[in-house]
Amino acid sequence: MKQALRLFACLLQWLALTALPGAGRAQADDHADISALLQSGQAAQALTLAEQRLTEHPRDPQLRFLRALAQTDAGEPERAIASFTELTQEFPELPEPYNNLAVLYARQNQWDQARATLEMALRANPGYATAQENLGDIYAWLASQAYSKAMQLDANSAASVRPKLALIRELFGTGRAR
């Protein structure tokens, strides 16, 4: 399940859509350089470059988004959560930070927080397919938890619940209950 949720992968498209008016070619190059580092698995270098560039452009949402992605990839989820949260507060019209924040919450098994955050992404952009897919994954995961609990509470419900639970587990490749 944790791999099923998707971080926003179309980073360059997002950068183009949210380009700041008056952002210079140097800033666009910085965005591309950091994105390339992230895509090549060099999260630490991407994070260093993003933080350097943010000293010059502290309000640049693209740089801040890239920094949060680098924090995520560098194994710093708490810093990434703080960075994505700040972006959602300052730029509530952008759905991508909400989506990525929700993925981090899901990785920490904070399912209700992930669900609520994805719903915010969809309020910002009802047509955002990645957030909609991730929300479906959250609902499926919550359903599997509810089905498991139902079987624990009432053994007689196993006949009707087991096929539903098996279908969800097959969907996420989780196999047997843990």
Structure description:
- This protein is mainly α.
- It has a domain at 11-128: Alpha Horseshoe (Serine Threonine Protein Phosphatase 5, Tetratricopeptide repeat), CATH 1.25.40.10.
- 73% of the residues lie in helices and 0% in strands.
- It has nine helices and no strands.
- The protein has helices at 11-17, 25-39, 43-56, 61-73, 77-90, 95-107, 111-124, 129-153, 158-172.
- The chain is elongated and about 65 Å long.
- Mean pLDDT is 86; it is low at 9-18.
TL;DR?
The protein contains 9 helices and no strands. The protein is mostly helical.
Main attributes of the structure:
178 residues, mainly alpha, Serine Threonine Protein Phosphatase 5, Tetratricopeptide repeat, 73% helix, elongated
Q: Count of helical segments?
A: 9
Strand content: under 5%
> Major sheet: size, sense and barrel closure?
none
Proportion in helices: over 70%
| Molecular shape | elongated
Structural class: mainly alpha
Instruction: Specify the CATH class of the domain at 11-128.
Output: Mainly Alpha
Can you say what the CATH homologous superfamily of the domain at 11-128 is? Tetratricopeptide repeat domain
Topology of helices and strands:
Layout: H1 11-17, H2 25-39, H3 43-56, H4 61-73, H5 77-90, H6 95-107, H7 111-124, H8 129-153, H9 158-172
Helix pairs in contact: 2-3, 2-4, 3-4, 4-5, 5-6, 6-7, 6-8, 7-8, 8-9
